[in-house]
Specification:
Layout: H1 4-15, E1 34-46, E2 54-66, E3 70-73, E4 77-80, E5 83-85, E6 88-97, E7 109-112, E8 127-138, E9 141-150, E10 157-169, E11 176-187, H2 189-196, H3 200-206, E12 216-229, E13 234-245, H4 247-250, H5 253-258, E14 262-275
Antiparallel strand pairs: 1-2, 1-14, 2-3, 2-7, 3-4, 4-6, 5-6, 6-8, 8-9, 9-10, 10-11, 11-12, 12-13, 13-14
């Protein structure tokens, strides 16, 4: 799967539909135990984090929520709100980071360059990441911190933090919901070396110089989205963002010689939500 971190951030934006806290439910909105969102979209993003080759990716959008406790989606992972009151959400979370293949293959690619930059570096297996999150909302701002440990695959620890400003515009017909704000991703040396380090064998196979990365910033940037309800159940969303790679990542010969420290992403999605 390409650009797994950028893709995950983008998919999280897609899950923030008008039925979320951005819009807020009116007192007359019927409450249901289960809320399900089905949809599909496209993302234009780097072939992998740090790549200067871009691809158009098609993806499914699925989100399931049970009351105000359980949630599961492609972007947000699977989590449980152990605390959900007074603006706070706190609980455990599990996510899956898709594998990174050194042959550049990606079954979700619609069009774009099939990158050859990773050849000789070997695959990074798909990783189950377990951890927790803390989120606080003081409208219109929402701040979130998430920390996860890879139990296989990259076997590293990764953290993400973001601050989003949310609101709506309803002067010209149906309300347009939006959110935007800064974000930062950081990781330990195990994570950074799994994706950006180059050992002796990889150096021989790829032709790149050896490199050992310390822990630190993976990237920092800004992202946002707008969502337009077409009906009570259907919405169309557009999203985008920019990230700059941190020095421990950007100093890797993989990025310096074959990639870029500037990363852009944009996309569109259509979703349908129902409850019971």
């Amino acid at each position: 799967m390409p650009s797994q971190r950028l893709l995950a951030v983008s998919l999280i934006a897609v899950t923030l539909t008008p039925h979320s806290s951005i819009a807020g439910d009116s007192p007359d909105t019927p409450k249901t135990d289960w809320n399900i969102t089905l949809g599909a979209g496209t993302i234009y993003a780097p072939a992998f984090v740090g790549s200067n080759d871009y691809q158009l990716i098609a993806y499914p959008d699925l989100k399931v929520e049970y009351k105000d406790t359980f949630f599961a989606s492609v972007g947000e992972g699977v989590g449980y709100n152990a605390i959900n009151s007074d603006g706070w959400r706190v609980g455990p979370i599990a996510k899956y980071a898709f594998e990174r293949n050194d042959n550049g293959k990606n079954s979700f690619r619609v069009t774009g360059t099939e990158s050859k930059a990773l050849r000789g570096l070997g695959d990074v297996d798909g990783t189950l990441e377990l951890g927790g999150f803390v989120e606080y909302t003081y409208e219109p701002l929402t701040y979130k911190v998430e920390l996860r440990q890879g139990v296989n695959g990259h076997e590293g620890m990764i953290g993400e933090t973001s601050l989003n400003y949310t609101g709506s515009i309803d002067r010209f017909g149906p309300p347009v919901f939006y959110a935007f704000g800064p974000r930062v991703t950081f990781a330990d040396s195990d994570y950074n070396n799994a994706y950006f380090g180059i050992n002796q064998t990889q150096s021989i196979n790829s032709g790149l110089s050896r490199y050992s990365a310390d822990g630190g910033l993976v990237s920092y940037g800004i992202g946002g989205f707008v969502s337009l309800p077409v009906s009570d159940s259907v919405s169309v969303s557009a999203f985008g963002g920019y990230d700059h790679l941190g020095s421990e990542v950007a100093d890797s010969p993989l990025i310096k010689q074959r990639g870029s420290e500037n990363q852009f992403v944009s996309g569109l999605s259509v979703s349908y939500q129902f409850g019971y």
